[in-house]
Amino acid sequence: MTFTRRTIGAHETNPIGLGCMSLSWAYGTPPSDEDGKRLLARALDLGYDHLDTARIYGDGHNETLIGEALSGQRNRFFLASKTGIIVDGKARRIDCKPETIRGALETSLRLLKTDHIDLYYLHRRDFTVPIEESVGALGDLVREGKIGGIGLSEMSAETVRRAHAEHPIAALQTEYSPMTRNPEIAVLDVCRELGITFVAFSPVCRGLLVDERPDPAAMPKSDIRPNMPRFQGDNWAHNLSLAEAFAALAAREGVTAAQLALGWVLARGPHVVAIPGTSRQDHLAENIARWDWEPSAALVAEVDALINHQTVAGHRYGPVMQATIDTEEFEAA
């Protein structure tokens, strides 16, 4: 069996897209602008046709990079960006007021050098603004032709239902991999029920489910992973052993660990797409090389037995970041 192309709203895309964040921020040392532009151009040539960015990635740098690199090739890719996390100097806030959304979109359109964004997400839930007001403002932008569809990021099934009742939601984006199972509590099912595409970010668990696994002790201070519980102390040692066993399963099947992780995510349903990120050309090619490979049910079961929310050590976020997340959490054991 093999996977086929999938849909986001009215658009058909490769089931594996490109998360662009690491070209500007968060993981390791970002590449130079020239190397970033070369990677984006190579992505299109390899068959990536869904690019995911956000205003917060490098405080506008990521959108600027995409605009400068690909503005003349806008018809070759489905473009997603996000608003809702606002940077004021060193401070951040979540702001999804209608007037903030509209102003942020105008800035993103300018930076991206385009007159429309295919999918525009609320990056986080603003608990001070009814979700219906925020989604209503996005619905106005759909009707004006400035965005093609509405997305939500890191939001609960209840929030998704309320939002979808206000205006159809095209996509829900949340972290999902064999090591992050929160979407299985509710949002995977509600997306299937309502016809919403589920977009899995960090499908290789922030670089853990790969053949060249990272060393948190060697990461630069700008890297966000050493502050995450799963990459700390005894949690890291335990999770590393799981990742090594996972990589052995992949090698047995003739694929890389990243390819197995991506195949596992896509096997969760035809409404699921994945957006692994990378700043390396070799990983870029690796991630899409087996985009149509579907792991057997028996292999998926082996992965599920090895790695699940009961076998992984540590939460994905610390307390401060977790307080901004609307996605369901498993009850403490």
From TrEMBL:
One of its GO terms (cellular component) is cytoplasm. InterPro entries: AKR (IPR020471), Aldo-Keto_reductase (IPR050791), NAD(P)_OxRdtase_dom_sf (IPR036812), NADP_OxRdtase_dom (IPR023210). Gene3D superfamilies: NADP-dependent oxidoreductase domain. Keywords: Oxidoreductase. GO terms for molecular function: oxidoreductase activity. SUPFAM superfamilies: NAD(P)-linked oxidoreductase. This is Aldo/keto reductase. Residues 15-307 form the NADP-dependent oxidoreductase domain. It comes from the Bacteria.
